[in-house]
# Entry
Amino acid sequence: MSDAASDIAKLPARGALYPAGVPAAVRLAGPWIALALLFLLLPLVFASGSALTMLSLMGIMIVFALSYNMLLGETGLLSFGHAVYYGLGGFLTVHAMNAVIRDGLPVPLPLLPLVGAAGGLLFGIIFGSVSTRRAGTAFAMISLGLGELVASSSLILRGFFGGEEGVSTNRTKLLHLFGLNFGPQIQVYYLIAAWCLVCMAAMYALRRTPFGRMCNAVRENAERAQFVGYNPQVVRFIAFSLAGLFAGVAGALAAINFELVNSAAVGAEQSGLVLLAAYIGGIGNFAGPVIGAIIVTWLEVMLSDVTEVWQLYFGLLFIGMVMFAPQGIAGLIMVHEPLWQARAYGSMLWLAVTYLIALLPALVCLAGAIVVIEMTYHISVKASDGPAISLFHLTLDTTSVKSWLAAAVLLGGGFVLFRLTWPLVGAAWHDAFVEARGAGRAK
Amino acid sequence: MTAPAIALADVHKNFGATKIIRGVSLDVPVGERHAIIGPNGAGKSTLFNLMSGRLTPSSGTVRLDGEDITGLPPHEINRRGLCRSFQVTNIFPRLSVWENVRCAVLWSLGYRYAFWRGIDSLADARERTETILKAIDLIDRRRVQAGVLAYAEQRALEIGITIAGGAKIILLDEPSAGMSAAEAARAVALIRKVSEGRTLIMIEHDMDVVFDLADRISVLVYGEIIASDVPAKIKQDAAVQTAYLGAAA
Amino acid sequence: MLELVTISTLNGVLYGMLLFLMASGLTLIFSMMGVLNFAHASFYMLGAFFGFQISQYIGFWPALVIAPLLVGGIGALIERYGLRYVHRHGPVAELLFTFGLAFVIVEIVQMVWGKGPVDYRVPQSLDFSAFTVFSTNYPAYKMFELLTAVAIFAVLFAVLTRTRVGLIIQASLTHPHMVAMLGHNVPRVFMLVFGVGTGLAAVAGVIAGPALVTQSNMAAALGPILFVVVVVGGLGSLAGAFVASLLIGLIQTFAVSINLSVADVLGRLGVAPPTPGGVLADVWTVTVAQLAPIIPYLLLVLILIFRPVGLMGTREH
# Structure
């Protein structure tokens, strides 16, 4: 293993994507300009109201998930209560919006996320001073407890949290600049996209600072970090506060988007959702939470229309990833990076083919599982609706043995066939690495 | 008369009822290369832990350059000029070799918790890191993930991280452990180079390394120092011979 | 007043015992395997639902025995085929695995039994009043709960300290590698401990189900309090978990019956009430009883400020 590793280490370093001679400034700003253009032009492709809403939700979730990864991916802090800063940022923003409207202050809507940022930072500092005294499992439990504390307080502090209905506002009633009243979703999308871009750039830049490097060091080996002069508790505290700041911005954007914030925004489910998004996307990579946010938002919206037990699927997906792909989707992609760097295109193509071959029985197995789950759900809870359910454009009789047998065959048979394809994929990987190693030696 | 670089005064350490360190007093003058030897279980690593703040003495004091540092946390002691390496390699496994060393220079260059400055533009950090990497002969491996380095390379990196901050007092815990004779010789040359003009205390089992490098040797047995003198005298000390080197040395 | 104190003490101790029934299993699993079982409260919930379902068919008393065995068996299987596999990915992955598990168990329970409460009742044989304290009838079922919990602890203590298996478990808690090298099947011990730990949580569910509401949100209600108990008591300390369980059980029970509000206390000291409608006005009128649900979390914050390792915690995990 070390032989291959050391050879791969000699492969050209990152940055070889650009030909030599490209000035550093372009190399640095290039991707961000491309991203800005992408954000700008997306509504031309996805123009419908529901698509714009989905894009807006994705933008919010990207900021939220990236802020979460400042804790988990960068500093190694697993938090089960990050929604506190998201929700409190949102609440402060709606209250600020209502105050601006009520008093007729000349504050335009695009500035309001600053309130969320300030609120997220403030509470990040307050709760962080207590939370970051411990690390690891204790920290995780403390974050859970604090999350519950805030969520439960929402029933007591009705003035601030608005009771069961929450606090609502009207984003069109703030000062209009350049004729923008932010009523239409497209204007809200661009507002969110702009803030998302700014936050992404800021969080990316934070990693390239002495503080950001020490966050990684503390994550890797907190004790060693002490012995090079750093107090891990201070590093964690700062990371926690800044993560709260960006979560607050996400909460503010959500408040603007929905014109409503209620106690669910600080709740355990919201905390769980951002954890899910960051982890599924991949916590070891800056792009991971972005990918995860996009996928989780898409699934959340799409799946809940298709099935009532979509949360169960989410949970199973999450467990599956924890067990078999803990590096997340971004990690799974990056595993192929050495092959790309070594330009082992031939074997990569074959590898892709074997992936497709393995995918087919996997889909069959998945279909079988879905049938079992949906039929079980129907029998247990919705039996009064009659025995038939509609699945994959077919009508299935949940009471007949044939349906269950068919599901079992799909599930079991699909799995068996899937397992049979593994050696094929393994051989393709072996060939790919041999080719990559050979290319490395030739240099 | 300048204060010793590090001074232990009647230090005891108990874990519950078990006494590990039983009254150790030791003065190491500035600029000395001092070796601590002793049988396994004598408490050598515990002594290092007490000096570096990983453990707090049950009684007694530790003074650094005359200042009482007893009970201070490790990062405070490190900031006052003491650094240490570990017997079991203690690096940042998933960071690159370059990052490992760069993280070790940041505090001493005064950057602290700065999250408003780009690290790639810090020329002094870059230069210092390069210098250290050249000294430990890992400059060609700077992009490799520290966790996949060969063992001897990791030990070299360990030393590099330890000295990167420019500390005046260096503690090395079995720096040549697990190395072949050639690797150990290289390690000795490196240690001699980096400890030039600084105070060095090291724990070692390899007697060749000890007699090669040390100005003075202390022998620790069952938590007590039974002898502390120049190498020539230690070789002849009867008590040391029986306790450690074997009867007829 | 004395009656209130007596009843509250009895109820508080009972609640504390139930908490410890769960916290002890959680602590054993954590000490041994280094993973905090996020799904522990879900096994409690499974115990309640299994107890309900089985008692529908063959009665409460068989359910009391069968349900915990079933749940413990499921727990052991999950350890063997799930947790042990995830172990190679590190401690974060292990914790997240149990987190996902908690989520999935709740969803499955909701899928099978629905989202509403089920009619899990106190069995006829115990549905009478055990004794009368001053003017309140104290139900026999609650005495049964208390006695069952105590009996289980006695059995556990005896097993841990007096049997061979118990000694092996105690040794594996601190020196698993050494125990393995002595020829004992440590993975099997792990599976046993996980199964017993989750079985204990299930017992708590079976006996608490009829007294509390058996519903799919049981786990979410009790879960966080359980984790507060182990953090306050000190992660990895059984004695600490015991003290913290009783403490939180008693405090919460007493708090519910106290209707003192901030206004009562500060008002008596002459502090003027704030203008109505603002945040401070809410705090002004809040009563201790209203605060009862969040008292464990307030305790958590206090402990973190003054004694971060917990009441009886020692090392940093």
The domain at 2-258 of chain C is CATH 1.10.3470 (ABC transporter involved in vitamin B12 uptake, BtuC). Chain C touches chain A through 52 residues (CB under 8 Å). DSSP finds 14 helices and two strands in chain C. The longest strand of chain C covers residues 129-133.
